[in-house]
Amino acid sequence: RVIRDLTLRPGQFVRRYVEGERTGVVGPIKYALLSLTASVIAGQLGREPVSPDLSPEDLAWRQALEAAHDLRAYIALLVLIPTAMVQRTLFWRRPFNLAETYVFLAYVMGHWFWLWTLEVLLPNSIAALPPVAFLRAALLYVYVPWAVCGFYGSRSLSVIARALVIVPTFAAWLTIGLRIAMVGWESGLRW
Fold first, then answer.
1. What's the half-sphere exposure (Cβ side, CA atoms, 13 Å) at 28?
2. Could you tell me where the DSSP H helices lie in 9-53?
3. What is the pLDDT of residues 99-126, one digit of tens each?
4. Looking at residue 156, what DSSP letter applies?
5. 109 and 39 Cβ atoms separated by less than 8 Å
6. DSSP per residue over 98-130, as a string?
7. How is residue 74 annotated by DSSP?
8. How far, in Å, CA of 48 to CA of 27, rounded?
9. For residues 63 and 57, what is the distance between their CA atoms, to the nearest angstrom?
10. Under a CB-based contact definition with an 8 Å cutoff, are residues 110 and 35 in contact?
11. Which pTM does this prediction carry?
């Protein structure tokens, strides 16, 4: 039910959840964790096999780098907090508080990670095609504003324009979070 409703009516689904209709529904954090974990597993399945020519030390480094790459996907959940703050600021006259805005983002971005998981499962020859990257970006810039319009109950140009700010805000916070994580991880390796 959650996947169906987040695909067909994402904003209305989250609004109903926030308003208390929660029977038979997976919570937003569990949903986002599940979708992130599926994307990490899909990414692992799509990796090239390890060369048998690698030395044990090189193999250990490669496995450590792959593990760090997998774990950094979970930073997305933390990045939703400042993104929710920006969204709450953009829609400050609306009745939803910061926690409810975080619930919205956890569901919507969690659903987006399911779509990304499907892309990861595509053969590299298809996934590398420019139309696939364009389609992914286009879907994100259509899906998020559509969900925002449903969540706030308005399709006005003002709501759509503010909704279009949410996607690059999330991307910017995610980039910053990943950079901080990688710098911290690399500095930990030097110890």
1. 20
2. 10-18, 28-45
3. 999 999 999 988 888 887 877 777 777 8
4. -
5. no
6. HHHHHHHHHHHHHHHHHHHHHHHTS-HHHHTSH
7. G
8. 34
9. 10
10. yes
11. 0.81
